Amino acid sequence: MSLLRFRAGANLTLLALALCVTACGDEADASGHSHDGSHSHGDGGHSHDTVDAGPRDNTNPPPDGSVIGAFQWELPETFPRPPVPLDNPMSIEKVALGRHLFYDKRLSGNETQSCATCHKQERAFADERTVGLGSTGELHTRSSMSLANVGYSPTLTWANPIMLQLERQVQVPLFGDRPIELGMHSIAQVEERLRAVPRYRELFAAAYPGEPEPITMVNAQRAIATFERTLVSGDSAFDRYLAGDASALSESALRGMRFVTSNEDHRFECNHCHGGFTFSDHTVYEGSLEVASNPPFHQTGLYDLDGSGLYPAPNTGIHDVTQRPEDMGKFKAPTLRNVAITAPYMHDGSIATLSEVLDHYAKGGRARNAARTDQFVQPFEINAQEKADIIAFLEALTDQTFVTNPKYSDPWPAPQ
Amino acid sequence: MTRSKSTVAVLFACSLLGLAACEDGDDLPAPAPLDAGIATDGGTLQPVTLRFKAKLGSEDLVCGRTYAGQGVTMINATPQDFRFFVQEAYLLDAAGKEVRVEFDDGLPFQTKDVALIDFTDATGSCGGTGGQTVNVTITGKVPPGTYNGIVLVNGVPETLNHGNPATAAQPLRAPGASWDWLSGYRFVMAELAPQAPGMDGGVPMPSGHGDAGAGDAGAGGHGGGPGSASAIHVGSTGCTGMIGTAGAITCAKPNRNRVKLTSFNPTTQSIVADLSAVFANIDLAAGSQCHGMGASCPTGFAALGVDFANGQAAATQTVFRVE
Fold first, then answer.
1. Does residue A291 belong to the interface with chain B, where contact is any CB pair within 8 Å?
2. Residue A289: pLDDT band by 50, 70, 90 thresholds?
3. Measured between alpha carbons, how far is A62 from A81 in angstroms, rounded to an integer?
4. Nearest CA in chain B to A141
5. Which is it for strands B137-142 and B102-103: parallel, antiparallel or unpaired?
6. How much is the ipTM here?
7. How many whole angstroms separate alpha carbon B159 and alpha carbon A377?
8. Which helix (H) or strand (E) is B10 found in, with range?
């Protein structure tokens, strides 16, 4: 195939560009980004200020005097930087602190769970359950989302159009009681617990030098968010193929790649919602023309309880937050990266396998409502080979480096 | 009755500084009672204390006690939570005009902007919700005058309602007082837990969030379902915008009430909040959940004086009265 004959990375960069450009849906926002090698800083539309990128060079730290310690992004060549709020710049010390907090079971009321309980590295920081299970035995109504590339997501959780800050999301599992997740009682309890741990005395002082009492809830949530921003996944077989390794994808996966990432074949058009380097249309990055106040959510025809598109409470999608009838059943399109290891699927884990996911989309939604279901979710014909090809490609999005990288693992010494 | 200039000056200074000595009046003539009709002296304010009491029907609320005849199915139940924020209070003067009470600032349960009334003391089934300290008063200042009546608004002012609790001052860091996923406060938190048949009053249920063991989905949790506590939580809903950016969230349904009690003497009477009335039309055996939304919300909201359908203050309420 002529596409595969290349000299340097140039043709593959062009291929990547082509893939990305054709992934541009009707949304005029971040899903239509282009890799032009430079950043535009005309980002007046940002919901939060970002650190100035400078030249996009992964070996030089950003020219930002407020960075403590020489934090350097270690990103795949084709990835832009995640946006970072001005009031929470990256630092090595904050990443270390956040990583300790992320894996610390003392951040649950009964000390049986940490963030990592439901966000396991070996599952791309998701888990294997249909829905989450809290520290006191209460079931969630939705499944744990993968935190791979969460720093690039303009909203957090499955269906919350107003939760735009990673720092604020932390409080939901910590203190939420609908259901009880980590089950911490109060901000005061968090601060008390952390202050009693000598290791945190060191870690917080290093991350927030000069503060007389650095062990505070707000500093903890900033550190956890900082660690989460470093969870970048971009070393799958697909990425290696883009970087020049022609053998990285099988013939089947290559066919699947075209089905998923391009619109050559109009049947699938997965990339309308699962496009770009994050394989999601819910993407912002440093310098993107982001529309943070209106990120897309989609009704994909999973439920229609009353003939008018009703989804079962409390999982009514963003309708749960906005209470607007037109928002019924609309959810975020999560990343397809690592999808092969993050079964089961959908917000409530109600689809067990990738094959059944494709069956659902082939119907235009297993409970399609023509008036309500997203315009890009249309019924299509697909044969067994094509299904296998798509699944082969989706499997090629698994990033083994990410799920085994020691820098993301539990930093606490094993109990003796 | 007149005052010497120096006395007035001291009283004025005392009022501004909220000094306790001024209220004791050791070295000064006692401040005139609010109903003594003292002519104002260009800005002198009088201290006032608004006192609250929690009851279930005619009985005082005591955490750990069992109360019979609760809810529409008339079962035994025990209080699990009863707290509410008050963002505004007005005393009604002789002409019926609303005169705003300026809240004292910087106290454990209140700032000038908002106060938290907390009837729970962490015993019995109240263990998982509020803290250990009960707070049943709001202290503040009003111009001297004759007052008979009060208007109260349960809520957190919109300028503060969507802030980060981690950076807020008390009482906005209160446990379990925030809907973190909506970035808004729970203006009213009312919960009653059913008591199993045969249980006597005073037998505590397992405590709630944070301290419970595995599998304790009943008291404390809000999983709903038979046997678990019923909850009425009121807060703003239908929200759009951006959490984290100041002023950037608007909620289609504010869900703030406006309770008017026309016969109320602040020096001799208390405002009673009746937890039974919140749940009067709710089936407590079913573990009904109202978290801004839920099947039991319309009636729970109505009891508290909020119109669930439009999110505005309702004209009537059944929870608050004067005794």
1. no
2. low
3. 11
4. B223
5. antiparallel
6. 0.74
7. 41
8. helix B5-17
Bond preceding residue B204 cis, omega within 30 of 0: no
The C-alpha atoms of residue A26 and residue A19 are separated, in whole angstroms, by 15
Q: Look up residue A1 and give its amino acid.
A: M
Which contacts (CB < 8 Å, 24+ apart) does range B294-303 have? B296/B230, B296/B232, B297/B232, B300/B190, B300/B232, B300/B234, B301/B232, B301/B234, B301/B255, B303/B232, B303/B277, B303/B278, B303/B279
**Among B83, B56, B278, B74, CA closest to B195:** B74
Q: What is the mean pLDDT of residues A298-318?
A: 96
Q: Is the pLDDT of residue B49 over 90?
A: yes
Q: Do A162 and B240 touch (CB under 8 A)?
A: yes
Please give the Cα distance from A318 to A159 (Å, whole number): 5
- Which pLDDT score is estimated for B244? 67
Instruction: Give the closest residue to B90 by CA, choosing from B157, B150, B175, B134.
Output: B150
Q: CA A84, CA B147: separation in Å to the nearest integer?
A: 54
pLDDT-derived band at B24 (thresholds 50, 70, 90) equals very low
DSSP state of B1: -
Q: Mean pLDDT in chain B?
A: 82
Measured from the Cβ of residue A337, the count of other Cβ atoms closer than 10 Å reads: 26
Q: How many CB pairs under 8 A join A and B?
A: 139
Please name the member of B211, B239, B240 whose beta carbon is closest to the beta carbon of A109.
Answer: B211
As a whole number of angstroms, the distance between CA B301 and CA B311 comes to 9
Give how far B70 is from chain A: nearest CA, Å: 24
Spatial distance between the Cα atoms of A301 and A81, rounded to a whole number of angstroms: 34
Inter-chain residue contact A292 with B220, CB threshold 8 Å: no
Q: B309 vs chain A: nearest CA distance in angstroms?
A: 12
B145 vs B54: CA distance, rounded Å: 28
If residue B306 lies in a helix (H) or strand (E), which one and from where to where? strand B306-307
Q: Name, in order, each residue with C-beta under 8 angstroms of A379's C-beta and a sequence gap of 6 or more.
A: A362, A363, A364, A368
Tell me the pairing of strands B230-234 and B289-291. Answer: parallel
Please give the model's pTM, rounded to 2 decimal places. 0.80
**pLDDT higher than 80, residue A415:** no
Angle at CA of residue B75, ends B74 and B80, nearest 5°:
120
% of residues, chain A, pLDDT over 70:
82
Per-residue pLDDT tens digits for A53-108: 333 333 444 444 444 458 999 999 889 999 999 999 999 999 999 999 999 999 99
Residue B26, judged by CB atoms within 10 A of its CB (0-12, 13-18, 19+), counts as exposed
Whether A283 shows a pLDDT value over 80: the answer reads yes
Residue B224, min C-alpha distance to chain A (Å): 9
- Positions of E strands within A143-299: none
Say yes or no to pLDDT of B172 above 50. yes
Q: Calculate mean pLDDT across residues A147-168.
A: 93
Q: What is the DSSP string of B79-100?
A: EEEEEEEEEEEEEEETT--EEE
Mean pLDDT for chain A? 85
User: To which H or E segment does residue A12 belong?
Assistant: helix A10-22
* CB neighbour burial string for B113-127, b if at least 16 within 10 angstroms, e if fewer: bbbbbbbbbbebbbb
Single out the residue of A229, A91, A82, A78 nearest to residue A148, CA to CA.
Answer: A229
The first and second tokens of residue A252, run together, are 């089947």
Q: Alpha-carbon distance A173 to A184, whole Å?
A: 9
